Amino acid sequence: MTFWQITAFLLNGFKISCLIFAVTLLAGIPLGLPIAFCSMSRFKPLRAVSKVFVWIVRGVPLMLQIFIIYYVPGLLFNHQIFAQVDKYFFLNYGIEDAGRIVAVLIAFSINYACYFSEIYRGGIESISQGQYEAGQVLGMTRRQIFFRVVLLQVIKRIVPPMSNEIITLIKDTALANCIMVSEIIFQAKKLAATKALIWPLFYTGVFYLLFVGVLTILLGRLEKKLSYFKS
Amino acid sequence: MAFLEFCGVRKSFGRTDVLKGIDLTLEKGKTLAIIGSSGSGKTTLLRCINFLETPDEGRMFLNGELLFDASQAKSLSEKQLRAKRLHFGLVFQNFNLFPQYTVRENLCLAPKLLAKEQEKDKQKRKELFAKIEQKADELLAKVGLSEKADAYPCQLSGGQQQRVAIARALAMAPDILCFDEPTSALDPELTVEVLNVLRSLADDNMTMIVVTHEMKFAAEVADQVLFMDNGVVDYYGDTKTAFGPDCPSPRLKEFVGSIQK
Predict the structure, then answer these.
(1) Which of A14, A22, A114, A121 has the fewest Cβ atoms within 10 Å of its own Cβ atom?
(2) A119, A40 Cβ separation under 8 angstroms
(3) Is the pTM of this model over 0.80?
(4) What kind of fold does domain A13-228 have according to CATH?
(5) What ranges do the domains of chain A cover?
(6) Where in chain B are all domains bearing CATH 3.40.50.300?
(7) What are phi and psi of A27, to 5 degrees?
(8) Is A136 within 8 Å of B172 when comparing Cβ atoms?
(9) In the predicted model, is pLDDT for residue B1 greater than 70?
């Protein structure tokens, strides 16, 4: 295999990594919001449930969570839903790993939503009570205060910790290979096993580095864009 | 008939009684200074006036009409509470401007949101918005900050920020404007510019309630003084007597003396 063939082969895997990355962000960013609100709820039982849930999801390795999502339906209901999705898509559309990828996406989305929810909660709670009161005495509704006054200040404050999580996320996608999803490292391992080539495994690092480089620039721009005000 | 009247207002936080039955009246166009040592309940009283705290007991009348009755407080919806709040403006000790908006936007935000709610017709709404912006510019001129209309709060000094906060409160055209230690977060030099704005408002016969530690200012501008001590009104009367030798309250005399030293 030439260098370019190997690059193309790895790139095929990196597409899957990027897919997991994108879907986790698209699902996790909004999903974190209701979890954050539950964790801040004045209704104690709801707050307790939310906090225990976040504790479990943040406290258990993500790899284990992938195993749980993937295997537990089969063990509990004797119905291996993800394996069947796999089979269905392969037979009908020739797409490999579909069910496994769905399992990974569910595990990742829930996991990251919980991390994001804690960042949101920290951001929202860091806004001074005075901002809410200033809105109140000006006759604004709670909704208006949140969306018109507080939200942008929260976003400004959570950009740095969110950037951290987002950069961690692209590297975490490698965990998908624990249930044999063909993400980039799994592809490299295939090369090691079938062609006795070990260097592609190290070469995968370049893909991650380039991706993180672009992300860092984009997130840095966002941070700069929000630097026109201090809060 | 007094413009604003408080009858037997009580408020406690847990087991701490902060307000132990406050009565006060204020005439339209007059300035009331509330003084007293820290923890005497001044700020809580002001927060009750602005419905940021709900009194446990007591009634409030505005212009002769019952505005608030603590015994029915629980049935108040957020909408009703908002409507009541709009009679009052509040200027905070630490300004609380909205940092992501320019000075003009800070003034226009709340009035525009209100106009949006009340006026559904797009053309009329546009006219209203234009009026709001015009009024904002007039108010900025009044507090001497016309040239800062497009600046962000972080680009202003503390005194300028407080003047913007005053203009912002005025933009809602409140019946009574309240100030919670408006100069406590400012250097002495900046204090002057804020107090000058308050003076000019008093000259325009704005009805004001000012919680302050500036005794000189209170003596000069306030029509009435309310001295709070440990959750009760210790002295309530005209300013001259409060700071004069005939002051009936020994506690107030002591307080004024200790501050002037």
Answers:
(1) A22
(2) no
(3) yes
(4) MetI-like fold (1.10.3720)
(5) 13-228
(6) 1-87+175-261
(7) -90, -40
(8) no
(9) no
Ranges of beta strands (E only) in B28-142 are 31-35, 57-62, 65-69, 88-91
Q: What angle do CA A213, A219, A221 make, to 5 degrees?
A: 105
- Mutation to test the A interface, candidates B51, B96, B97, B117, most A Cβ within 10 Å: B96
**Tokens representing residue A30 in the block:** 């909004």
Quick: pLDDT tens for B21-45. 999 899 999 999 999 988 888 999 9
**CATH class name, domain B1-87+175-261:** alpha beta
Is the minimum CB–CB distance between A216 and chain B shorter than 8 Å?
no
3-state secondary structure of A196: coil
Judge whether B169 is closer than 8 Å to chain A, CB to CB: yes
Measure the CA–CA gap between B226 and A84, rounded to whole angstroms.
78
Tokens of B11: 């408020």
Query: Who among A138, A142, A153 is closest to B78 (CB)?
Result: A142
- Beta-carbon separation of B85 and A136 below 8 A: yes
At A82-132, the pLDDT tens digits run: 888 888 888 888 788 888 999 999 999 999 999 999 999 999 999 999 999
* CA-based nearest residue in chain B for residue A229: B100
- The chain-wide mean pLDDT, for chain B, equals 91
CB contact, 8 Å: A130 with chain B? yes
